[in-house]
TrEMBL record:
Signal peptide boundaries: none
Protein's UniProt name: AAA family ATPase
SMART domains for this protein: AAA
Residue ranges crossing the lipid bilayer per the database entry: none
InterPro entries (alphabetical): AAA+_ATPase (IPR003593), AAA_ATPase_domain (IPR050168), ATPase_AAA_core (IPR003959), P-loop_NTPase (IPR027417)
Ranges of residues in domain AAA+ ATPase: 118-250
PANTHER family for the chain: AAA-FAMILY ATPASE, ATP-DEPENDENT ZINC METALLOPROTEASE FTSH
The organism's place on the tree of life at top rank: Bacteria
CDD domains in UniProt: RecA-like_protease (cd19481)
Length: 361
């Protein structure tokens, strides 16, 4: 026979007196779930108050956006509504985790009733330009929440001794409202405590951070992004619900990214293979600059894009078959297939097939 959930009731009272609104709601959810075994009508009566709406109303006291005490600069930038014009492309593993997070947030009502919190803290790791910041924007857009970005330069540029206060102020502000808080370049504030440099100061800072992560409510999503996951303090690492590793895109993913550009499938596949090894941000820049050239010089988009891509790969010395690159550049500069064949010592059909593969002509 189950007994009255005394422990859970004490937690309810404790979090009601000291914690956030969402911590209180979660404690009530846990209490009501246990109480079902001994007093179902009372449990149901209590559960009526547990709704996502009530939790998302945020804390009672709104904390205004903080500024640096010395420079008076804002410590956090707020965007609302967040609009991501093109749906980002992620590999299956990353997309699955992001979808799970969204599903949990959209099922907040069901979770709270059982005293369960949705994923509250995510850590995004990966090289520059793979979509970490973009993924944070995308989540904020999908959840229809404001995106708050910690202004790292301001937070850290103040006298070192103030950094901890600044970080704490940003957290207090973010915790007081439903939002997505993005901590970009997270390694800068979450370095290992045993790092030799600035030991005392960094230790204090990491402790501020750990405390804030422990207090983090269930009605806000914290996303930390870093290029250097390995630099993070293991104690920081452990607190995240999900650590997501963003990889540079595969050729297939690049092909998906290029899907809205008008070109033959074969050409798209070949272009994606050519660009394999570049980051999404590099590819995005390439596409944008080709779009502008095509518009301003009334050129065709695909040859312009291919030319830029070949040039980029050749200049980095990582074009798999540099001779093909030279042939293409000659062709795009106006030389005939025959001229190219003669100059490169290749047969006419060989040149023709390379051009067809890259340009579909
Ligand atoms: N997965 C993706 N899908 C579509 N576009 C992408 C993707 N990743 C990056 N991009 C493009 O590259 C740009 C830069 O990406 P983003 O800022 O998200 O990179 P990051 O991983 O945060 O890099 P950094 O470590 O330098 O901050 C985006 O604005 C977008 O145009
Ligand atoms: Mg970024």
């Amino acid at each position: 026979m189950e007994s009255f959930p005394r422990k859970e009731l004490v937690s309810v009272i404790q979090s009601g007196m000291t914690g956030s609104r969402s911590a209180f709601a979660l404690a009530v959810g846990r209490f009501a779930t246990k109480l079902k075994h001994t007093d179902l009508p009372l449990a149901q009566e209590i559960a009526q108050f547990l709704s996502a709406e009530n939790v998302m109303r945020g804390a009672g006291d709104f904390v205004p956006a903080p500024v640096d005490a010395d420079s008076r600069m804002e410590l956090v930038e707020t965007i609302f509504p967040v609009v991501v014009p093109k749906r980002p492309v992620f590999n299956g593993t990353v997309q699955d985790v992001l979808d799970d997070v969204l599903k949990e947030w959209r099922s907040l009502d069901v979770l709270i009733q059982e005293g369960l919190a949705p994923a509250r803290m995510l850590l995004f790791c990966g090289q520059p330009g793979v979509g970490k910041t973009l993924a944070a924007y995308w989540l904020a857009q999908e959840l229809k929440l404001p995106l708050l970005t910690l202004n790292l330069a301001t937070v850290m540029s103040s006298f070192l001794g103030k950094t901890g206060n600044n970080v704490r102020a940003v957290f207090d502000h973010a915790m007081s409202r439903p939002c997505v808080l993005l901590l970009d370049e997270f390694d800068a504030i979450a370095k290992r405590r045993d790092d030799d440099t600035d030991v005392g100061e960094l230790k204090r800072l990491v402790n501020v951070l750990l405390q804030a992560l422990d207090d983090w409510p269930a009605n806000a999503l914290l996303i930390a992004a870093t290029n250097h996951g390995e630099l993070l303090d293991p104690a920081v690492w452990r607190r995240f619900d999900h650590v997501i590793q963003f990889e540079p895109p595969s050729a297939e993913l690049i092909e998906t990214y290029l899907a809205d550009l008008p070109m033959e499938e074969k050409v798209r596949k070949n272009l994606a293979a050519l660009l394999h090894g570049e980051s999404f941000s590099g590819i995005g820049q390439l596409v944008n600059s080709a779009r502008k050239t095509a518009l301003l010089e009334k050129a065709d988009l695909v040859p312009t894009l291919v030319k830029n891509a070949v040039r980029l790969r050749m200049s980095k010395g990582n074009m798999a078959k540099p001779q093909e690159g030279e042939m293409l550049l000659m062709y795009l500069a106006g030389h005939s297939r025959r001229e190219i064949a003669t100059s490169m010592g290749k047969t006419h059909p060989t040149v023709g097939s390379v051009i067809k593969r890259y340009l579909g002509e």
